[in-house]
Amino acid sequence: MEKSGYGRDGIYRSLRPPLVLPKDPNLSMVSFLFRNISSFPDKPALIDFHTGQTLTFIEFKSVVSKVSYGLLQLGIKKKDVVLIYSPNSIQFPICVFGIVGIGAIATTVNPIYTVSELSKQVHDCKPKVIITVQELLPKVKDFNLPVILLGTDKKPLEPIGKIPSIKLFTELVNNEGSVDLDNRIKQNDTAVLLYSSGTTGTSKGVILSHRNFIAASLMVTADQEWAGEINNVFLCVLPMFHVFGLAVIMYSQLQRGNSVVSMAKFDFEMILKAIEKYKVTHLWVVPPIMLALAKNSVIKKYDLSSLKQIGSGAAPLGTDLMKECAKNFPQAIVLQVKFLSQFFFSFGSGYFNNPQATRLTIDKQGWVHTGDIGYFDEDGQLYVVDRIKELIKYKGFQVSYS
């Protein structure tokens, strides 16, 4: 093999050591998530920046188990779809892991979606329950589906639309029951449906298995593993309905034993306050936030010396901007990453209810066609420079005009 990783068979291979993936086929992403917590049961796992609520890893596992039990009591069973339509909170990942912990399937929705956009996803994946927040109830009132309400301890006094029942998250977890989170699940079972336009304009459900999440989390945290890093603190301001927030930050870092600080929405000065207060070590953002880190003088008001790494993803970032940001944070590594929902096809099974789109994305040899244009240099570094398909990236979100 050449120095670049280019082999005689015409395939480029990473020069990094190969990942060692768990071979047990009967392994869920939730049991994998909690496999090591006996080593750090009282370490903070999830922290809500807005409320200050903190869950240790042992408390985190307990509440996920209670959510799983509560969902079973509501009649949710393996392979049923549960839709989460909510901004970030520490209840968001708890619900995701509670859903997939019983073999059901979680699907997530951008909380700024209109009723029309939400309706398309509801009709495509046919969820049994919608998990949402008080302010979004008017948008889910006509789907005739039961609702689990996050972030409040009060139900609406009057019936809303066609919603047959509303259960509070606090009611869901206020029980003595629990679930064996190692039960009845295989690595190849579907865990999550993340909707993405991919390389075409229409939104499609990307099927992600338990194995997808496990493999991706080991890849994302490989550098930490090789360096022997422990006790990192990640700030999650990126949306958890997106692959970056949910898989790359939330799941990957928690399975590693890192702490994650949740933030509901973007506010630049709140980000700086969170970094200072919780001694955040890793900040992964999108280019507009990176621009603010490079240009906004307000950063001088805060102690941001805890930062060891600043990463940008979801849209391209210029080299000049990266260098300018690095000047403000000399103690931190500034880098750019690329993740897409379809990337996980490397270990998964295509688009939900859309075999034609799957065939156009995954060829007969199993290669995933991402729609990107790039090149390798002589050292094996991959540079993505353009897209084949006409797709605009606006603030990290895809807008198709093809």
Describe the overall structure:
By secondary structure, the protein is of the alpha/beta class. Helices cover 30% and strands 20% of the residues. It has helices at 29-33, 57-73, 91-100, 115-125, 137-140, 169-173, 210-220, 222-227, 243-256, 268-278, 287-295, 319-328, 355-361; strands at 44-48, 54-56, 81-85, 105-109, 129-133, 147-150, 166-168, 190-196, 204-209, 233-236, 259-262, 282-285, 309-312, 333-336, 372-376, 382-387, 391-394, 397-400. The strands form four sheets. The protein has a seven-stranded mixed β-sheet with strand order 2-1-11-10-12-13-14, sandwiched between helices. Strands 7-6-5-3-4-8-9 form a seven-stranded mixed β-sheet, sandwiched between helices. The protein has a two-stranded antiparallel ribbon with strand order 15-16. Helix 3 links the parallel strand 3 (81-85) and strand 4. Helix 7 packs across helix 9 (243-256). The radius of gyration is 21 Å and the shape is globular. The model has no long low-confidence stretch (mean pLDDT 87).
